[in-house]
Amino acid sequence: LVHKYIKDPKPEPEIILTKAKGRVSMNQHPTVTVPTEFNLHTEKRGAAHKEDEIARLQAQREEEEKRLIPVAAPMPKFKPLKQREEVIKVTEPEPFKLMGEELSKKAKIALQEKLAREEEEKRQKAKFVAGEIKWDDDFFLFASRKQLTKPEPFMLATQIRERESNAVRSEYAKSRKEADERKKAQEAALKERQEAEDRAW
Fold first, then answer.
1. CB neighbours of 139 closer than 8 A, spacing ≥ 6?
2. pLDDT tens digits for range 110-134
3. Which end of the chain is flanked by fewer CB atoms within 10 Å, N or C?
4. How crowded is the C-beta side of 183, counted as CA atoms within 13 Å?
5. Whole-angstrom Cα distance, residue 189 to residue 192?
6. Residue 18 CB contacts under 8 Å (≥ 6 apart), including other chains
């Protein structure tokens, strides 16, 4: 219980400090500034230019789509043809030659003649024809009294090596043959000695 002589405590006021013209005021809420809309002229021009561009592209697209739609050309007006009563003979074309064919034929013949001339010139140059010897002074031939030179025998290094190798092989074969003969004579003598000893026993 609260004593009757004690008053109810009052709530303390909220103190808000604001600065206005160099003074500090209490119990005053600051005013919130609301910004006003600010439209630039460039934004308006940009929006208008964008709309114009969209409209232009749309019109261009519609025009291209219309061009793609096939439209048949109107049939020309003409008078009906009347059938002729006379009979026309069938024309027979005359044979003709193209100028290009004649030129190519002439060029081919000229090329063949040129190749034939070159071949004939090569054949004539390939033939050996002895020319006439011209001497300024009179030329006489006399019999020589010198003895004819006899060439000495000449052997290549390979022939010399072959001859030496053949000599070595022949000597080796000869020595091998003699060794075989001696061996056979020793074996025969040993065999005779054994037979003599056997008879003696």
1. none
2. 999 999 999 998 888 887 777 777 7
3. N
4. 6
5. 5
6. 24, 25, 28, 30
Query: H or E element: which one contains 25?
Result: strand 23-25
2-54: pLDDT as tens digits: 444 445 555 554 444 444 444 444 455 567 777 777 777 788 888 888 999 99
pTM given for the model? 0.24
Q: State the Cα–Cα distance between residues 48 and 56, nearest whole angstrom.
A: 12
CB 27 within 8 A of CB 14: yes
The dihedral region occupied by 44, where left means phi > 0, alpha psi between -120 and 50, and beta the remainder, is: alpha
Q: How many angstroms separate the Cα of 191 from the Cα of each of 8, 62, 187, 188, 194?
A: 165, 133, 6, 5, 5
Cβ within 8 Å of residue 175, ≥6 positions away: none
**Rg, Å, the chain Cα set:** 69
> Residue 171 has which token pair?
């000597």
User: What residue has token string 């030659």?
Assistant: 97
- H/E element, 117: helix 99-126
